[in-house]
Design goal:
The protein has about 300 residues and is of the alpha+beta class. It is built from 4 helices and 14 strands. Helices cover about 30% and strands about 30% of the residues. The model is unreliable at about 1-10, about 15-20 and about 35-65 (pLDDT under 50). It folds into 2 domains: about 70-165 and about 275-295, Trypsin-like serine proteases (Thrombin, subunit H, Beta Barrel), CATH 2.40.10.10; about 170-275, Trypsin-like serine proteases (Thrombin, subunit H, Beta Barrel). It is globular, with a radius of gyration of 34 Å. The strands form 3 sheets. It has a 6-stranded antiparallel barrel with strand order 1-2-3-6-5-4. It has helices at about 1-65, 100-105, 210-215, 275-285, and strands at about 70-80, 80-90, 95-100, 115-120, 130-135, 150-155, 170, 180-190, 195-205, 225-230, 240-245, 250-255, 265-270, 290-295. InterPro entries: Peptidase_S1, Peptidase_S1_PA, Peptidase_S1_PA_chymotrypsin, Peptidase_S1A, Trypsin_dom. GO terms for molecular function: serine-type endopeptidase activity. Keywords: Disulfide bond, Hydrolase, Membrane, Protease, Serine protease, Transmembrane, Transmembrane helix. Belongs to the peptidase S1 family. This is Trypsin alpha-3-like.
Length: about 300
């Protein structure tokens, strides 16, 4: 009888051990599954957080980034084997750019072989070069007052790359409204700052009479439009750069008294004033420029 009791006791102990081992295995399995699930949730949270941060970064970049304007180009001079930035220009058709007459005055002593129009890049040093075939400065341009500060340049090869698209120009019907915002686009090389890439400056248009009062001389005339900077920035080498409003080129940088002074107006060539002049150039020279003007 004692042997029977011992056998039962051994059987019970064995059964208990087996059950305990099974429970232990089940517990280990449950712990592993739980850790795996928690890990997946944690990784998923990390992924979602990273994706959210990435999305947020994209929104920030999109807010601050300005797409390279397809109509901007630079007038450069070949000097001692290097390119020297002279002025900004605006592509207005397949073979023509528009710039400041002062810029054309600066380079008129050089043969065309040493002049290039560089485009298709926001960094003018890395753009595509086009030879210059002709310069047509406005006959009434004055170096003293900068009146009629406009010049046409014809290139030898067509603008046809992805960032060589003619801009839309303001027509003679365009309404310049004071206290409306616009953007200047140009390159900059100053004593304290150097940039080979395009930069943008926000400005507000001001009335003709207010501009005359602030500049305090009679050099401001109907061929000009004025604005003041909404931010401090150096504007050296900005002549010929565009003034854009609602995707229409309404002006080109001409001169300023104190560009870095927010309260000092900048003066731009009024594009709309020269629509008839461009048509006159076409008629007098037997050419078609095909500039696109928008009312």
């Amino acid at each position: 009888m004692g042997d029977g009791i011992s056998a039962v006791a051994c059987f019970s102990m064995t059964t208990l051990l087996v059950v305990s081992l099974a429970n232990l295995i089940l517990l280990v399995f449950m712990i592993m599954e739980s850790r795996k699930k928690c890990g997946e949730d944690f990784n998923d949270r990390i992924f979602k957080s990273s994706a959210l941060q990435s999305k947020f970064s994209s929104l920030v970049d999109a807010k601050n980034h300005r797409e390279t304007p397809k109509f901007m180009a630079a007038l450069v001079l070949l000097k001692s084997g290097t390119m020297v930035l002279i002025c900004g220009t605006v592509i207005i058709s397949r073979f023509w750019v528009l710039t400041s007459a002062r810029c054309c005055e600066t380079v008129k002593i050089y043969p065309f072989e040493r002049l290039k129009i560089v485009s298709n890049a926001d960094n003018w040093k890395k753009g595509k070069s086009h030879s210059v075939e002709n310069l047509m400065r406005h006959a009434n341009f004055s170096l003293k007052s900068f009146s009629h500060d406009v010049c046409l340049i014809k290139v030898g090869s067509p603008f046809k790359e992805i960032y060589e698209t003619p801009g839309t120009l303001a027509s003679f019907r365009y309404a310049y409204l004071q206290d409306t915002s616009a953007t200047t686009i140009g390159w900059m090389t100053g004593k304290t700052q150097t940039s080979n890439r395009l930069y943008f400056t926000n400005v507000n248009l001001i009335s003709f009479h207010r501009c005359q009062t602030l500049i305090k001389d009679e050099r401001v005339d109907e061929s000009m439009i004025c604005a003041y900077n909404l931010e401090n920035i150096n504007c050296n080498f900005d002549s010929g750069g565009s003034l854009v409003q609602n995707n229409v080129i309404i002006g080109m940088a001409s001169f300023e008294s104190h560009c870095t002074n927010r309260n000092s107006p900048r003066v731009f060539t009024r594009i709309s004033y020269f629509q008839k002049w461009i048509q006159l150039v076409e008629n007098q020279n037997g050419v078609k420029i095909y500039a696109n003007f928008k009312p």
